[in-house]
Amino acid sequence: MIEKAPVTRKQTLDKDLTKIIQVEQATSILSRNLIAPGLGLLFLAFAGILASFYVGANASMVIIVSAAAIGAYMALNIGANDVANNVGPAVGAKALTMTGALIIAAVFESSGALIAGGDVVDTISKGIIAPEAVADPSNFVLAMMAALLSSALWVNLATWIGAPVSTTHAVVGGVVGAGIAAAGFSAVNWPLMGNIALSWVVSPVIGGIAAALVLAFIKTTIIYQDDKIASARRWLPLLIATMAASFSTYLVTKGLGNLVHLKGSALLAVAVTSFVVVWAISHVHVRKQSAGMQNRNQSLRKLFNIPLVISAALLSFAHGANDVANAVGPLAAIVAVAQSDNVSSHVEIPLWVMLIGAFGISLGLLLFGPKLIQMVGDQITKLNQMRAFCVALSAAVTVIVASWLGLPVSSTHTAIGAIFGVGFFREWYTANSKRRKTYLARRMTENGNHIEKDEKEERPLSAEEIVHRKLVRRAHVMTIAAAWVTTVPISAILSAFIFYVLRMVS
C-alpha cells in the first residue's frame, strides 16, 4: 500500500496570530506618527491654561486664552521651519548628528529668546500698519489674531511641502492682510512693503554670491594647493576669525540688541577684538589638530567641524532672540489691549508670554524640525564641512554688511541662497576651472590615473556628463522660490479672510 504524503496546512490559529501581529505593527507605526501632533496639541492646551492662570477670570479671558493657543501654534511652526537654516548645513556636512543638532538648537534657541528676546515690541509690526488705522481695540485684537493664525497656517503648510520660508515675512503678510481688511489699503505703509519685497531678491542673491566667493577662495588657497595642510594652517584661522567677528557683531546688533546698545567705534572695537582673539586661539588649535594629518581633502574637512558646531549654536541663539517676537509680539499686543482696552504703539512682553514663545520654538524644533533640517542640509545640494562653513560665514557676513548699508535682507533667504550659491558655483567650477583641471590632471599622472576617494567628484568630466550632472536639485529651487514669493500675499489673503470670519462670529 502506498502511503499518502501528509498534507501540510497552516493552522487557522497561526493565520489569526499572524494577522493580529500585522495589525499591531501597523497600529504601532500609526501611533508613532501621531505622537508629535499629540504633544503639539498638549502644548497648545498648556499655553491656554498658563494664560488663564496669569490672567484670571475676567471678560477678556476667552480672548487671551485663544490668543495664547494661537501664539503657541505659531511658535511650534517657527521651530519646525525656521530653525533648520541654523543647523541644517552642519547636519548635512556631518559635523553634527541630527540628535546633537536638535539639542544644541533647542538649548540655544530657548536661551536666546529668554535672555535677549526683548521686553518691548512694536504692536503693528514695525510700522507696516498705521496705529491710528486700527485704533478700535476690538478691531485691533481681531486683526492681530488673524495675522498670527494666518502666518502660522502658512508656515505649517510650507513645512509640510518642505520649503524653508521667512516667518517674519509670513507675519508681515498677516499684518498687512488684516490691516487692509480692518482699515483699507491706505492703512498700509507701501514703501516699507516695497523694501520687504526687495529682500526676496536681495537676500538670496547676496548670500549666494558671498558663499560662492568664499568657496572659490577656499578652493584656490587650500584645496588645490600641493601642501593642503600648510595652506590650511595659514588661511583657516583667518577665515574662522572673520566668522567670529561677523557673529560677534551680529549678536551685539541683532541677538543682544535689547540688552546692549553699541554703535560706531564701539561696535568696530567688538569686531576687531573678536577677530584678533579668535585668530590667536584658532591658529594654535588648527596647528595642533592638523599635526600628523595626511595631505588629503578628507583630512581638511575635519578642521572645519568645531567652527561649524559653534556657528550653529550662535545662529540658534541669535535666531531665538530675534524671531521669538514673531510668535509673542502679536500675542503680547493682544494681551495688553484686551486688558487695558486701549491700543498702544508699544507693549511690554509678560514673562509667561515669552515662555510660550521660547519653549514653543524649541518643542516645534524637536517634534517637527528634522524634516526641514534634512532638506536644508542634504537635499538641496551635497554639503561637506568646507561648503557648510562657506554657508555659515557668508550668511553672517551678508546680514551684517546689509544692515550697515541699509539693505533689507532675510536671514532665512540669505542662508538658503548661500546653499544655492555653493551648489551652482560647484557646477560652474567643475565645467570651467582651469586650475581644477590642471590640478587633477597632475594628481592622476602622479598616481597612475588614480585619485583618492574624496576627489572622485572632482574628476574631469566629459561634455555629456557635465550636461547631465546637476549639483543643485532644480525641483527644490522652484519649490522654495515659489514659497518665498507667495509667502506675503498668501498670508495677507488668508489673514483678511480670517479677520472677516472672526468679526462675523464675534
From TrEMBL:
- Report the domain of life of the source organism: Bacteria
Pfam families with a match to the protein in the record = PHO4
Q: How does it sit in the membrane?
A: Multi-pass membrane protein
Indicate the transmembrane segments per the record.
34-55, 61-79, 91-108, 140-163, 170-192, 198-223, 235-252, 264-282, 303-321, 349-368, 388-407, 413-429, 477-502
* Subcellular location(s) per record: Membrane
Q: Which UniProt keywords apply?
A: Membrane, Phosphate transport, Transmembrane, Transmembrane helix, Transport
Write down the PANTHER family for this protein, in alphabetical order: PHOSPHATE TRANSPORTER (PTHR11101)
Family designation? Belongs to the inorganic phosphate transporter (PiT) (TC 2.A.20) family.
List the protein's name.
Phosphate transporter
Species assigned in the record: Chelativorans composti
